[in-house]
């Protein structure tokens, strides 16, 4: 039978490696972890707010185009949308399915 311990001492005993579950029983004490579980103290940043844009009442394609462009401009003005095109071709996954031919 071959077993390996998931929790062990390393580096001459100066490091304890935990690869399994670590359970603290009632009354257990942990030293030297001051600040380890503190939440960041940075202030929350207010998300940008897009100004109110009424629902489109366009009756023609040209009017609808104007409404959409007005929305895009508002998104760009508050920084939600990039103002220049971003090249995403490097991140596009392969569009062809992998070859799933089975050859025994």
Question: What does this protein look like?
Answer:
β1 (7-10) and β2 (15-18) form a beta hairpin. Strands 1-2 form a two-stranded antiparallel ribbon. It has a domain at 57-81. The chain is of the alpha+beta class and 104 residues long. The longest helix is centred in the middle third of the chain and has 17 residues, at 61-77. The protein is elongated. It has one helix at residues 61-77, and strands at 7-10, 15-18.
Keywords:
104 residues, alpha+beta, two-stranded antiparallel sheet, 1 helix, 8% strand
Q: How would you concisely characterize the structure shown here?
A:
By secondary structure, this protein is of the alpha+beta class.
Helix-strand layout with pairing:
Blueprint: E1 7-10, E2 15-18, H1 61-77
Antiparallel strand pairs: 1-2
**Count of DSSP strands:** 2
Measured distance between first and last alpha carbons: 35 Å
Element order, helices and strands? EEH
Which percent range describes the beta-strand content?
A: 5-15%
Q: Helical amount among residues, as a percent range?
A: 10-25%
Radius of gyration equals 29 Å
Task: Report mean pLDDT, rounded to a whole number.
Answer: 81
The largest pleated sheet is described as: 2 strands, antiparallel
* H/I helix tally: 1
The shape is elongated
Strand order in space, largest sheet: 1-2
Instruction: Show unreliable segments.
Output: none
Structural class, from helix and strand content?
alpha+beta
């Amino acid at each position: 039978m071959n077993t390996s311990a998931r929790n062990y001492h390393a580096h001459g005993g100066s490091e304890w490696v935990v690869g399994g579950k670590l359970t603290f029983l009632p009354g257990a004490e942990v030293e030297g972890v001051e600040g380890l579980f503190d939440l960041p103290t940075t202030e929350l940043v207010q998300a940008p707010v897009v100004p109110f844009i009424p629902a489109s009442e366009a009756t023609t394609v040209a009017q609808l185009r104007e409404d959409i462009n007005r929305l895009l401009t508002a998104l760009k003005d508050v920084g939600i949308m990039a103002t220049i095109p971003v090249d995403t071709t490097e991140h596009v996954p392969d569009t062809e399915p992998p070859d799933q031919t089975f050859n025994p």
